[in-house]
Amino acid sequence: MASTSTAVPPKAKRKLDNGKKKPKTLKDEFGEKLDIKPVIPKPADEYDYDSSDEEDLRNTIGNIPIKWYDDEEHIGYDKFGEKIIKPAKKGEIETFLEKMEDPDYWRKVFDKQTGTDVRLTDEQIEKIHNIASGKYPTIGYNPYEPFLDIYSSQKEIHPIDNRPEPKARFIPSKDEMRMVSRMVHAIRMGWAKGPKAKKEEPKAYDLWAAEDALDNVTKSQLSRMRVHMPAPKVALPTHAESYNPPEEYLFDDDERKKWEETEKEDRVINFMPSKYDALRKVPQYDKFITERFERCLDLYLAPRQRKMRIHADPTDLLPDLPNPNDLRPFPTTLAFYMRGHTGQVRSISVEPERGELLASGGEDGTVRIWMMATGRCIKTFKMDGEVTSIAFCPVADRTLLAVAYEGKYVAILNTGCGDRLHVQQTESLLAETPTESQEDGAVVTWRKSKDKLVLKMPNEVRQVTWHAKGDYFASVCIDDIAKSVYVHQMSKAKSQCPFQKRKGHVQAVAFHPTQARLFVATKIHVREYDLARCVLVKKLITGCKHISSMATDANGENLFLGGLDRRFCWMDLQMGNKPWKKLKHHTAAIRSIAYHKKYPLLATVSDDGTAMVYYARIYSDFSKDNELYPVKRLRAHERTSNDLCMLHTTWHPTQPWLITAGADGTIAIFTY
């Protein structure tokens, strides 16, 4: 039979040759020798595979927080030092489509180091299931394999070793005898001393340690240490408990009799004050033991309640305010002053359509017309007394100006400024006003005087305001009387008082912009009246102690109030009769309030010398809440000796410009 040989690696062959070992020979079943050489396995190369983590990971940034790369374009570096660019973020639509189309979407997880999704293998998913169900993570691990009993559990009758005990175990040790004798001799001589007593150190408890780390401490003791409730303190003694109190603390006969007749539980003090000349004459307190016993009962039996305090950062309680730059435009800069009045500027009004003209009335008895673009005074009207209120007619075709001045007079002027056609139409309108057809004994008398109409009122006028259509205007008297509000119709030269009973001291009135309604503000309430049906529609509870000014929005659905108690209220008429917002940003009385017709801007002026500008967004959608944010505080005027500063304010009709009138005789214009 031919001999066969197996292939041997060259490296193994060299080792065999060097060792000079002959191959073993075996005989087959026929007795012939077979030359078989052993096969030596080739050793594995240690560089063929490296299972280190650094080789497996594509991102080599190490164990650092991934959030450090949030503001970078890359997420780390690969093993060659190149930047790993962040993958594009998937949108919600792409994520939804991938979830619907990819059947393996459920087995993908997000890798923070690479910023990509990694697909889990079946083995990894099975390990996750084992961990979630409380099993061993290793797949196929059997914790209940057969136990190999190495030592027999059967009891044997005979011992394995039956040798007799050695003699040395029965004879006392001579070495131990010598050691004991030395110790006895040292004790007799006084050389040896007993063990020192250990000093007991005060035991301190770590309140922040885990419960398992505290030795010999029960849960009740631990809870008492952590939730410590101090005992109530004893009240401090008063002057009546002194051994030598003042005379006013001593009882007379009537007080002593009253104290004795009062029940023990109803007495203000449980003892009778007494007076001694010296402390050594004070006898022992007979109720000392009783009071100490009651004190112990209070400590032992009195229930206590622990008040849990919420430890919160005060900044977290503040609302999130938007960036003021996102709320622009609003006035931020003082553009210029208008100077010309010699006293207080009590009222200002802007031309309603284009805002080219500004009218102002002051304490010096003059009404001045200013150019808004240049700040130059182009016309001056001399009145017979101090001007208290002025208002431009809201109709753009009429150059009318209503002026209320001291002496119980209201004048309707033709400014004579602006478009010539409008000026001529206004002159003809004033000429056609039937002032001669007045009833005898009328409370309000109408008369013509040169280029104006003059109304003589029964009392001094505080405010004058126009209706949106320009034919009606209302006036408010200063006195607290029943007939303090009058509504006037210029086309018929008639006046009427809508109220016959006093409902409070009227401070301001305002017409509804679109409906035949009138808002009447007293010191603490605002009433809304329907002028067509002559009925009360709604009574508003403002929460202010003294209302000073009132303004409405363009639709008449919101009412803004300012008070002398430094409060500003926003009344949403569709939400109820109580304020939607109440703010207190001024340190002095609020004198005037104004809302812009075009921009969501609101302004309040006060005697503290500041004007607060608010971003006041009104939504017509009922699902959205109105927005109110303070955006700017403006300063322009100086305080006078009587603590007055800003008296009136108004907005430009088309631009976000704020105009303020001051008690120092100046008019300031703020632009953005």
TrEMBL record:
Please provide, in alphabetical order, the Gene Ontology terms of the cellular component aspect for this entry.
PeBoW complex; preribosome, large subunit precursor
Q: According to the record, where are the WD repeats?
A: 338-380, 583-614
The primary location reported for this protein is nucleus
Pinpoint the BOP1 N-terminal domain residues. 69-331
Gene Ontology MF term list: ribonucleoprotein complex binding
Location of the region described as Disordered in the Swiss-Prot/TrEMBL record:
1-30
Protein's UniProt name: BOP1 N-terminal domain-containing protein
Species in which this protein is naturally found? Caenorhabditis latens
**Lineage from the top down?**
Eukaryota, Metazoa, Ecdysozoa, Nematoda, Chromadorea
